[in-house]
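Deliverable D2.4 — example input (structure tokens):
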């Protein structure tokens, strides 16, 4: 086995999740993960489409009119190269982005935090900057983005690794037992 990865119950986990420090710094990055220029939006799971569709009306009130119109006209997701993705506006803003001042935020997450819906946001967004690839099974890998440099610096200052920063999203995806097994490997 490659020493850069841990095998936890058949799921490969990059050691970077334990070694790299990371804490989002929205004041500095301005929510860049929701506004990265790309032909591809955030990955979606098929069941997430089924979970998001019935809550759209509750999410719409947080979105700019342009996004509401785009979703009503063309939907909020697309399939590219066999992968389901959230659509974006002008190859940049996620269709679910709204702004608080100059900071991009997720309208689904806002509705969730206001206890209006029970779906927090797509898991690929919740796990960011960790991406899940399939290579004979799930592979969790830290992806470094220049836009996230402030998060790396804040993580160092606060001494929080990627694993601990993403605790809730990892538990949401893989369960508490899985999370505790990774922590045990890390000596916690």
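Example output (designed residues):
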């Amino acid at each position: 086995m490659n020493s850069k990865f841990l095998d936890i119950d058949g799921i490969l986990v990059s050691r970077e999740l334990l070694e790299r420090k990371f804490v989002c710094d929205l004041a500095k990055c301005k929510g860049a993960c929701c506004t990265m220029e790309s032909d591809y939006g955030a990955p979606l799971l098929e069941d997430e489409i089924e979970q998001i569709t019935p809550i759209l009306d509750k999410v719409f009130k947080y979105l700019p009119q342009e996004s509401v119109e785009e979703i009503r006209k063309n939907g909020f997701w697309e399939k590219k190269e066999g992968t389901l993705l959230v659509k974006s506006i002008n190859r940049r803003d996620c269709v679910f982005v709204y702004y608080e001042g100059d900071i991009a935020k997720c309208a689904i997450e806002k509705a969730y935090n206001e206890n209006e819906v029970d779906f927090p946001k797509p898991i690929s967004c919740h796990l960011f900057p960790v991406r899940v690839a399939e290579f004979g099974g799930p592979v969790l890998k830290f992806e470094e983005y220049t836009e996230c440099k402030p998060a790396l610096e804040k993580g160092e200052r606060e001494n929080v690794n990627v694993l601990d920063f993403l605790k809730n999203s990892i538990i949401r995806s893989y369960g508490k037992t899985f999370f505790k097994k990774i922590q045990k490997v890390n000596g916690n």
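The radius of gyration is 17 Å.
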